[in-house]
Structures are given as C-alpha cells and as structure tokens.
Design brief:
The complex is a heterodimer of chains A (about 180) and B (about 100). Chain A has helices at about 10-20, 25-30, 35-55, 70-75, 100, 110-120, 120-145, 150-160, and strands spanning about 5-10, 170-175. Chain A has about 180 residues and is mainly alpha-helical. Chain A has a two-stranded parallel sheet. The relative contact order of chain A is 0.22. Chain B is mainly alpha-helical. Chain B contains four helices and no strands. In chain B, helix 2 packs antiparallel against helix 3 (about 35-65). The radius of gyration of chain B is 17 Å and the shape is flat. The termini of chain B are far apart. The chains are: A mainly alpha (about 180), B mainly alpha (about 100). The interface of A and B includes residues 35, 122, 125 and 150 of A.
C-alpha cells in the first residue's frame, strides 16, 4: 500500500448508523470487509455469549424509582439486538407470539432472586460481557464515521518503511452523504 | 437453550474471551493495516493481563498475613515491573 494513499469512507453518517444497528455492518457497507467481520464476530460474540451466560434474562430496561438500570445504556450500544427491551411494558407485547413475548422483558423479582441464588456472581460477569460489547461498539461506530483514530500515525510508519517522507496528518476522505 | 456456564468449569475462563475481543476491537479502531492491528492487539492483551496479574497478586497479598516489609518489597517489585513494561512500550512505539 502506498503511504500517500488515503482511506475513502463511503457515506460516513449512514455507515455509522449501520455500524450501530449491527456491529460491523457499517464497515461492510464501506467495503472494509475484514474489519466488518472482525467487529461482528467479536462484539456480537461477546454480547450473545454474555446474554446466554445470564440465562437470557440480563438485558432489560427499567428506569424508575425501584430500579435505575444503567447497564442498559451501555447494552444499547450493541444496537438492534438490545432494542426489544425498549418495549418494556408487558401490555405492549400482547400481539407477539408467547414464545418471544418475554424476550428482553424485565424478569419478575422472584425469577431474578432464583437466578442470583443459582448462578451467583456469574450473573454479574454476564452483564459485564454485554456492557463491554455495547461500549466497544461505540468505538466501532466512531471508526465507521471517522476512520481509524491513528491513521496518520499508520501512514507515517508505512512511509518510513517505504523510505518516503510523509507527515503524520490523517488522510481520511469521506465520500457520499455529508462531506467533511 | 442450555449453555455450559464457564463458571462451572473455572470462573477464570471468563477472562480470555474478554481480553481477546477488547484488544482486537480496540486495535482495529486505531489502525487499518492488519499487521499493525495484530501487533497493537497483542501488546494491549499483554498490558491488560499484566495489570490484572498485578492486581491479583496485590489483592492476594492483602488477603493473607504477610510480613509488612516483605509486602513493601513485593509492592516495589510490582511497581518496577510496570514501570519497565511502560518504558519498553514507549521505546517500541518510538521505533
């Protein structure tokens, strides 16, 4: 790769939105296939693995005097997979088939007590997995919108390897949509 | 759907997937070149593991009855290791 090469980012706002909805999708849209697959596997892997370790009961939304579920703010970073929790009132889900009606719905207190009794702090570790997956996806969204944070440094290193004089300034070109 | 709980095997098994995923994703958001991504990811994974190992040793020493002087020596050694690792990282980045 030539050190003077710029990175063309196709339609950054749309790519960022896609990257948030499905980790890696924004990069696939921009033609950065390898990174798209890496982000999808790592982030969705962490999220789904954590979710399963928490018996599929740890992603839910609750924001009132009884419980301030701050974890959900981070879990929402993982995008579409955490969105069903936003329909947090059971009556909003009456039209859904019974098998998926309780997906990402807050479990009853008795159910939560049983889970904590059965699994102990593994439930907390499972929550951490999903929270970290959501937070990592925020970095991915940023990467889809603005390109790699140290791309200027990368060009400088490549230039040194090729013996070309280069500056450390980032050279990320944004094409389509909003131009930077 | 029933999944095997890693905690039933050993709760330490929860750590490797997290460290690998965090290092890879973080590094991939820094660089575009795969060689740089993997180099940075390995360095990050080692930093994280060193930090956690240091915290583990420290907490272990706090939890057992140990001679306070020996504790100070171990603490100084841990600090020295972290300082050395940091210097080494800075040198390799400068290169």
């Amino acid at each position: 790769m030539d050190s003077s090469e710029t990175l063309e980012l196709k339609n950054p706002p749309l790519a960022a939105l896609l990257a948030w909805l499905v980790p890696g999708l924004g990069h696939l849209y921009q033609g950065r296939v390898g990174k798209g697959i890496l982000f999808f596997v790592c982030i969705m892997g962490l999220f789904i693995f954590g979710f399963s370790q928490g018996s599929w009961k740890i992603v839910y939304f609750r924001w009132d005097k009884e419980e301030w579920r701050w974890h959900y703010l981070a879990q929402l970073g993982a995008g579409a997979i955490s969105m069903p929790a936003l329909a947090y009132k059971p009556e909003w889900r009456q039209w859904l088939p019974p098998s998926i009606r309780s997906f990402e719905l807050k479990p009853s207190e008795e159910e939560l007590d049983d889970l904590h009794r059965q699994y102990g702090n593994e439930m907390d570790i499972a929550v951490i997995y999903t929270v970290i997956a959501g937070l990592l996806n925020i970095l991915v969204v940023y990467d889809a919108y603005s390109g790699p944070a140290l791309f200027g440094e990368e060009r400088r290193l490549r230039g040194e390897a090729e013996g070309e004089p280069t500056t450390a300034e980032s050279s990320v070109a944004k094409t389509g949509g909003a131009q930077a | 759907m029933n999944f095997v709980l890693l905690g039933e095997i050993n709760s330490h098994w929860y750590l490797p997937p997290l460290v690998i995923a965090i290092s890879l994703v973080y590094s991939a958001t820094r660089f575009e070149d795969w060689r740089l991504i993997f180099t940075h990811a390995i360095r990050w994974a080692l930093y994280i593991l060193t930090f956690l190992a240091g915290a583990y040793v420290l907490l272990y020493l706090v939890s057992v009855n140990i001679d306070p002087y020996l504790f100070m020596v171990i603490l100084a050694a841990l600090g020295g290791c972290l300082f050395w690792a940091n210097r080494r990282g800075a040198h390799s980045q400068a290169r």
